[in-house]
Every structure is written in structure tokens, then in C-alpha cells.
Amino acid sequence: MSIFSRFLPKKKPVEIKNNIPKEKENIRKTFAVYCHKHHNTSGNQLCPQCQALLATVFTKINRCPYGITKPICDRCDRPCFGAHQTQQFMQIMESSKKGMLLRHPKMAVKHKLASMGVDYAKYQQQKKIDDRVKAKEKASKERAKARKEKK
Ligand SMILES: [Zn+2]
After folding, report:
1. What distance in angstroms lies between residue 101's CA and the mean position of ligand 1's atoms?
2. What domain range is 76 assigned to?
3. Number of domains the chain contains
């Protein structure tokens, strides 16, 4: 160990946050906002239809192949709720955005940030792929050039 090592910042282990409980809470509240408005329910009550959809969504989240690193459900590339239920879910999440902002502003903003985080991760992923493609193109061009120069 060098004598300087104690002046260096300690390396922190990378933490993977488990955001699933928070996301479930967000989804539950969003469903409530939607159901209260469209199906005349109130308080913690949901109509049977919304309750059933919510139960399906939660079951699927528990089995999410991405585990705790999963992106938020309304931005997932491979929604797993089934075609019809995914459509209903997206509709509820989309149409209750304004209502969430009014009733649960903190949560709505956090959800928006999480959504932006997904965009950023996708952007980084795409950039990596693009860089690799560019590097390959460059390498092949240089190989072609080298071949020409040999002649
Ligand atoms: Zn409902």
C-alpha cells in the first residue's frame, strides 16, 4: 500500500437501488387517480376492473426478467402484461399524468425523472453501438488504404 492511498477517496461499491416498491406505489396511486375520475370510486377503493388490472401488473412486476434493474413499466421495450392489458395500463398511466402532478407532485416528478433516466440509458447504449460501428468502418477503411499502398 502506498503512503498516498489514505488520501485517495475510498471506492464505493456500485449500488443498485431497488425502485420496485416505489414504482408499485406510483402505479397504485396513478390507478386510483384514473379510477376515481372515470369509474366514480374514491379513497383507497378501485373498481373491480382496475383492481384486477392492478393485480396483474403487480404480479408481472414481481416476475420481471430485468429484476431490480428494470426500467419503469410504462417505458419498457418488452411489456409483459399481455397486449390488451398493456394497452389499458399505458392508457391509464398516460391519461393520469396531469392528475398525478396535481395530487402527488413529488411522485409525478420522480417518475418523470425515472422516465428520462430510461431515455438516457437508451441513448448511452445506442451511442456505444454507434461508436463500435464507426470504429469498425474506420478500421476497414484503413485496411483498404493499406492494401492500396502495397500495390
Ligand atoms: Zn376503475
Report:
1. 19
2. 20-150
3. 1
